[in-house]
Design brief:
The two termini are 28 Å apart. An eight-stranded mixed β-sheet has the order 3-4-2-5-1-6-7-8, with helices on both faces. It has a single domain, classed as P-loop containing nucleotide triphosphate hydrolases (Rossmann fold), CATH 3.40.50.300. The mean pLDDT is 90. Helix 6 packs antiparallel against helix 13, helix 7 crosses helix 8 and helix 8 packs across helix 9. The chain is 45% helix and 18% strand. The protein has 276 residues and is an alpha/beta fold. The protein is globular. It contains 13 helices and eight strands. The structure holds adenosine-5'-diphosphate and magnesium ion. The site of magnesium ion has 5 residues, from helix 1.
Length: 276
């Protein structure tokens, strides 16, 4: 698969799309952001880190056979499991393999690191669709990226669970910056209110800075797109939620992540595998 790609020593900006609670729109955001960034000329790699039902491949109307587990088991090379799932969009299916990442033998870690090193320089973005919550594998993935994008919706449980995630990442992984995306809101005002409620608890109890990356309105076109295994950006590009996702993509694109202490593809894998 890599032979179709040009390698030009690109710096890969790594972004996790994560949440405290499930079902808040992580996979929808990941896939549509990937499409938008790809349409703007970027090469995008997605790591599917959720074992849930609505996986990235399903949302993009594709099927995957192999996952990173086959690489860990020494059955496949990483290039063999990466799948093109759209123009300039590639997927590493995580499968249950991601649970294993923190429990690999030294030999397995070395092997995986060597293999993923071969991906350096090809991609502008690595987007990671994580599982929800505070399981250790979710924390490791989040602690290894340039930008942690927390998706939150107006439900009280979503706000409190986002706080719990931010708290654990701050306390145990020393993360201090979080990007916040408010999804499924009725208006921009509601988006700002959700952000403010989350900011207030964070300010009270933690020393972190939250960046507001915008809101995505509750939009029937979004769920219609998921049901038909298409992306809202393709199916209804003029729908309010599609326009909002593009605005988020512009913000993310404007911040290159360069100049941060941590970052890049190699750094990401070293952190995840605990070999740095
Ligand atoms: N802004 C939105 N408006 C309407 N429906 C949405 C919106 N965002 C997500 N959804 C729907 O919510 C459901 C869960 O979204 P999904 O992306 O699978 O969440 P997660 O990956 O966090 O579990 C999907 O059916 C999706 O279409
Ligand atoms: Mg999902």
């Amino acid at each position: 698969m890599l032979e179709n790609l040009k390698r030009n020593k690109k710096y890969t900006k790594t972004i996790s799309i994560t949440s405290g609670k499930g079902g808040v729109g992580k996979t929808s955001v990941t896939c549509n952001l990937a499409r938008y960034l790809a349409l703007k000329g970027n090469k995008v790699l997605i790591l599917d880190g959720d074992l849930g039902m609505a996986n990235v491949d399903v949302m993009m109307g594709k099927r995957t056979e192999h996952s990173i587990l086959d690489v860990i088991d020494g059955e496949k090379f990483i290039e063999e499991i990466i799948q093109p799932i759209g123009d300039s969009i590639y997927l590493i299916p995580g499968g249950s393999g991601l649970h294993e990442l923190s429990h690999l033998t030294v030999y397995q870690k070395q092997n995986l690191l060597e293999q993923v090193s071969s991906l350096n320089g090809y991609f502008d973005y690595l987007l990671i669709d994580t599982a929800p919550g505070i399981d250790s594998n979710v924390l490791y993935l989040n602690a290894a990226v340039n930008e942690i994008l927390v998706v939150v919706n107006p439900e009280p449980a979503s706000i409190t669970d986002s706080y719990a995630l931010i708290k654990v990442l701050n306390k145990y992984h020393k993360e201090e910056r979080f990007s916040i995306l408010c999804n499924e809101v009725q208006s921009e005002r509601e988006g700002l209110m959700v952000f403010q409620r989350l900011s207030e608890v964070c300010e009270k109890f933690l020393c972190v800075s939250l960046d507001y990356k915008g809101h995505i309105p509750l939009d029937a076109a979004m769920s219609r797109a998921s049901r038909s295994q298409t992306l809202i950006l393709d199916k209804s590009p003029y729908a309010p939620a599609a326009k909002a996702i593009m605005a988020v993509g512009d913000k993310i694109g404007a911040d290159t992540g360069l100049g941060r202490a941590k970052g890049g593809l190699q750094f990401f894998w070293e952190q995840v595998l605990g070999v740095a």
